[in-house]
Amino acid sequence: MLILSVESSCDETAVALVKDGRCVLTDQIFSQADLHAVYGGVVPEIAARSHLEVISLLAERALTAAGITRADVDAVACTYAPGLIGAVLVGVNFAKSAALALGVPLIPVHHIRGHIAANYIAYPELEPPFLCLAISGGNTMLVDVRGYTDMHILGQTRDDAAGECFDKSARVLGLGYPGGKPIDDLAKRGDDTRYELPRPYVGQNPYDMSFSGLKTAVINIAHHCEQTGEPLDKAGLAASLCRAVSESLVGRTMAAAKELGYTKIAVAGGVAANSRIRADFTAACEKAGCALYIPPMKLCGDNGAMIGAQGYYEYLAGRTADSRLNAYATMPL
């Protein structure tokens, strides 16, 4: 089954062609990072307009790159939630139009389910059940993946996501937007014990997380040094931040795996590109005797291939939509 898949939830426009949920023929991606960098973050109106300008071109480019025609497409999948509402609407409306014009099924895909499915592309042998930590820019959640479309949240952030913590910390350190990679690069040159940062625990659920306090602690340290003239060890602060985030994520994930008896652990989303998190998960899984699945860098960030991968399994489960499909800024997993 060949699926034309569309992703437009934030600041990347992507159109991919995916066969049977695992084989990616092409994934055409346009990043808006340069458009938003001057503002220090994503501007929703600019994001939506940019998606509108390039999405048709990317679809044509995808067909050409894969060497196929419109008649070869069996279905159209798209991210319909969650995300910036104007941005998501562009992708949804394009997908609805394409499905109608081609006379093929329309498949709505939850963005986080797409991130989890990126692992199916990277690891053809991976099948549910397994435990997955989904850490994208605006979401952080620990998911019990019982089946391809049967997923249950064990814990999630109560406030800021890990990605937001990195982006906002990068801004106060003068590293620009997006902040994940600059923070990671800077941290490699620093002492991760230089600053003592909090690891919050919230409520009765040991798997819930919070990163607002951690973000605030970084901002307070930077502002204190600026106001008092005390030298700020930016590399040390970045390294201490990466350590704090990683320990919060890895510790909870491994505890959940032990409690539930899982020996397969996956990580997904843009924050999974962080080298400290990848290294700590590798070490923890080796120690616990667990198999670790983390997508390559190109599949960590938003992309169309992951939507096509999950779209295939949503289709098999009978989850299709018609022209009444809407976009949603928030949506339970």
Keywords:
46% helix; 18% strand; 11 helices; alpha/beta; five-stranded mixed β-sheet; 333 residues; single chain
Could you please describe the fold and organization of this structure?
The chain is of the alpha/beta class. 46% of the residues lie in helices and 18% in strands. It contains 11 helices and 10 strands. It has helices at 33-37, 44-66, 85-102, 111-122, 162-172, 180-187, 212-228, 234-260, 275-288, 297-300, 304-316, and strands at residues 2-7, 12-19, 23-31, 75-81, 106-110, 130-135, 140-145, 151-156, 264-268, 291-293.
> Mind telling me the C-alpha Rg?
20 Å
Coarse structural class: alpha/beta
> So how many helices?
11
Total strands: 10
The overall pLDDT average reads: 96
